[in-house]
Amino acid sequence: MIKIVIDAFGGDNAPEEIVKGAVLAINKLKDVHVVLSGDETKINEVLGSIKYNSEQLSILDAKDVITNNESPTEAIRFKKDSSLVKALDLCKSDDQVVGIISAGSTGAVLTGGFMKIGRIKGIFRPALCPVLPTVKGGCASICDCGANMDCEPKYLEQFAVMGSCYLNTLGNKKPRVALLNVGTEDHKGDTRTKETFELLKVNRHVNFVGNMEARDLLSGDYDLIVTDGFAGNVLLKSTEGAIKSLLKVMKAEIKSSLLSKIGAVFMGKTFKNIKKKFDYSIYGGAVLLGCKKLVVKAHGSSKATSICACVEQVYNMSKGKLIDKISKNLASVGIGENE
């Protein structure tokens, strides 16, 4: 039985959607046990109207909640009765728990991963790695997208190794790894980028295909984009913003005339397919790669289907022995030692 703990009170739609998502997951995966961390009374109120196997679900009572407005470090240190801290503590102490999921404060989840769970031996910095849909129907990941603002070339090399291992667990046996840069030519970039390029070029655990420009993120030509957390976060949010803006413009144009509205009726199925293609919720959350246990940061607005996808994500990473694979690959090329 694979045991996963979920912060039931993290996110905009907690606890209802989080609890419902957990139930969706255990109804789908019969060898998963979910521990819901949060106010037991409120969790039971949601569970009261849902059918589920009680042997696959338990509750860790926690009366407090960490909000987005709090200092992540102080919250992790002092809010010991919060749903997130209790979930992290259980994840660390219980050998049967393979990972944790939270849709709560990103800063608190990252800080908790660093402080409570700890790093795999040899990891310089854990990195946040989300999965995005591409125009070709596949997916692309960014590593890092916000956990590390300042990175050295050796950190970026580790991100490439960890990200490749992660995509292996999703079924991509030879992910195409690119380095985010201002041009695709080998000589482009600053000193750090050029040094990283040389490291990736010779790393046998990385299928390095060269530099990538930001505009090609969703092209489908790359599977893993390696960068520092600052640039990665800008890349991620600017891409999300561009897609949302484009959809708003399309909606406004459709409403602008009777002819456009009539045309939209015939294009209804096409619009639905486009929306479905770029639905991030089916891919789960962003994984904090490099921790001793599996840590998944779900989107703050996650609903039940997205939480269910996150559980499947942890399940597949556990089955694929992601943490062992990362450790083995780093050791075999001799990169990384705890600082």
Q: How much helical structure, as a percent, in the residues?
A: 40-55%
Beta-strand percentage? 15-25%
- Helix and strand element order: EHEHEHHEHEEEHEHEEHHHEEHH
Instruction: Output mean pLDDT.
Output: 92
Q: What is the number of helices? A: 12
How many extended strands? Answer: 12
| Radius of gyration (Å) | 21 Å
Largest sheet: 7 strands, mixed
Q: Structural class, from helix and strand content?
A: alpha/beta
Main sheet: strand order? 3-2-1-4-12-11-5
Distance between the termini: 35 Å
Shape: globular
The parts where pLDDT drops under 50 for at least 5 residues are: none
Features:
five-stranded mixed beta sheet; 339 residues; single chain; seven-stranded mixed beta sheet; alpha/beta; 12 helices
Report on this structure:
By secondary structure, the chain is α/β, with parallel strands linked by helices. 45% of the residues lie in helices and 17% in strands. The chain is built from 12 helices and 12 strands. The protein has helices at 16-28, 40-47, 72-78, 83-93, 106-117, 153-169, 191-202, 229-255, 258-266, 268-277, 304-319, 322-333, and strands at 2-7, 32-38, 57-61, 97-102, 127-129, 131-133, 139-143, 176-180, 207-212, 224-226, 286-289, 294-297. A 7-stranded mixed beta sheet has the order 3-2-1-4-12-11-5, sandwiched between helices. A hairpin with a 5-residue loop joins strand 6 (131-133) and strand 7 (139-143). Helix 3 (72-78) packs across helix 5 (106-117). The radius of gyration is 21 Å and the shape is globular. The protein starts with a strand and ends in a 6-residue tail after the last helix.
